[in-house]
Specification:
This is Helix-turn-helix domain-containing protein. The protein is of the alpha/beta class and 276 residues long. The protein folds into two domains: 66 residues, 434 Repressor (Amino-terminal Domain), CATH 1.10.260.40; 142 residues, 2-Layer Sandwich (Endonuclease, Chain A). Helices cover 49% and strands 12% of the residues. The protein has twelve helices and six strands. A six-stranded mixed β-sheet has the order 3-2-1-4-5-6, sandwiched between helices. β4 and β5 form a beta hairpin. α2 packs across α3, α7 runs antiparallel to α8 and α10 packs antiparallel against α12. The longest helix has 17 residues. The chain starts with 12 loop residues before the first helix and ends with a helix.
Amino acid sequence: MVNRRELDPERSPSAAFGVLLRRLRDERGWTQDQLGEHVGCSGAHISALEIGRRPPTERLVARCDQALGARGRLVSQSQAIRQTALLEGFPEYVSREAKAVEIRLYEVGVIPGVLQTSAYVQALTARTVERGAITPEQGEERISLIDRRRSALVRTPPPLVFVVLDESCLLRPVGGPGVMEEQLEQLIEFAALPNTVLQVAPFAMGDRRPLSLPLYLLTMENRSLVSYADSAQRGRLERDPASVVPLLTAYHQLQAEALSQAASVAMIERLRKGTP
């Protein structure tokens, strides 16, 4: 077919949806205009969905799913697109995190999502909803996403997971003493796993700290690298080695300056017990 644009399902959740939509349409032998007639929109609209230029509405996804006999596959695929509580780039990061062979996390002020207990994430989410930053529905999406991310870490073989926590992650109270005690215990259990390394970057590092913002780094099975970093209002996914490799270097420098795992676990244990 002339001028048929190639689609990469790994590029984003929208692209993955578009690839599935096109494949199902091709299997029916329909043109974009013909599918549009069946679901009540133009062929140009179908084209925009397939190349990821327009996000699909729930109603249109349901119509396409029924018209193409997808048995819920389009509906399921579209759910990742509607992660409206998430910053740009993060849904794609999550899809790659589930396939990565090595995961490196650095967090400031909050326990990383994949290590959060249910009580911890619920307390955080409840406060965010109370502030009006997200809707209750978006809060449920966030909790569901963290559940899926946690379950993705127990695959076979499991990924190697390296975590460096800024000391502020441990000292910021979330949800009350009981929630924090359970969360700190969860960190100690995580550190004991054979495929994990947990370190704390103490405040005493001062200006020797090479990173000041949260950073997530992935090594994929083909050894390609992906990084994700966010601020309060935006996130950025990066796949260009020229941009990611310096971040990986900074992460290694951070690990070298941080406390050892044994010293980090000892600090967490003292905080859990409430001793200095």
